[in-house]
Amino acid sequence: MPLIEIKNLHARIGEREILKGINLAIEPGTVHAVMGPNGAGKSTLSNVIAGREGYEVTEGEILFNGENIAELSPDERARAGIFLAFQYPVEIPGVTLSTFLKAALNARRKAAGEAEIAPVEFLKLMRDTARRLNLPDDLIRRPVNVGFSGGEKKRADIFQMSVLEPTLCLLDETDSGLDIDALKVVSEGVNALRSPERGFLVITHYQRLLNHIVPDVVHVFADGRIVKTGDASLAEELEANGYADYTDAA
């Protein structure tokens, strides 16, 4: 059974239809990459899967582990194991990253019928994860994303994902604005989480991220639709030739 299966998904913001009949299935243990020009609907897809407010699903289904999640709130989807790394991570003044993550982790554990994590165990988890991702300790003690550089925000997202260990990871242009060092941290964090039980949907404009996170499947988006699907070589073709052929066809 697919980890997530999207059937004939249509979605809009206000009166503007953005997704126009998406069909997509992600099997456990696979990485799917979505590429396409600006305005094609890539980020909308990740936001709709995560349940972000402001998007209206007008038709179709989103099945996560076989259950339709279209009516679930964003926090219910997060507790079920869906994680979205935003293209533009938000700031949460007054809440440290460690406090935020402890609350999120315990919410997931409670939803799974598990006890809250012990303080000593949580501290060890945070330190071990930060060390593995080569993150400075002070990043954990700072308010979430407040005063962070663009690269620090993306690295903090990967840190959160590594601590929470979600079942479905949605990365919305996580490589945007990253230098080569930050890109390496992001890709190593993603690759470390690849497992037979977990799936990824990686949204990007560029081949460079996919040189580090080699996808199993690549989808080309244009005008709210998937217009072509292939293996990792399709990303190389897009890097060489651009999206013109696909946007014209759409």
UniProtKB/TrEMBL annotation:
- Which CDD domains does this one have? ABC_FeS_Assembly
Question: InterPro entries given for it?
Answer: AAA+_ATPase, ABC_transporter-like_ATP-bd, FeS-cluster_ATPase_SufC, P-loop_NTPase
Q: Does the keyword ATP-binding apply?
A: yes
One Pfam entry name: ABC_tran
The entry assigns this protein to a family as follows: Belongs to the ABC transporter superfamily. Ycf16 family.
Ribosomal protein keyword on record: no
Gene3D superfamilies recorded: P-loop containing nucleotide triphosphate hydrolases
Instruction: Specify the ABC transporter domain's residue ranges.
Output: 4-248
Any single GO molecular-function term of the entry would be: ATP binding
Name of this chain's protein: Fe-S cluster assembly ATP-binding protein
Q: Which key words tag this protein in UniProt? A: ATP-binding, Nucleotide-binding
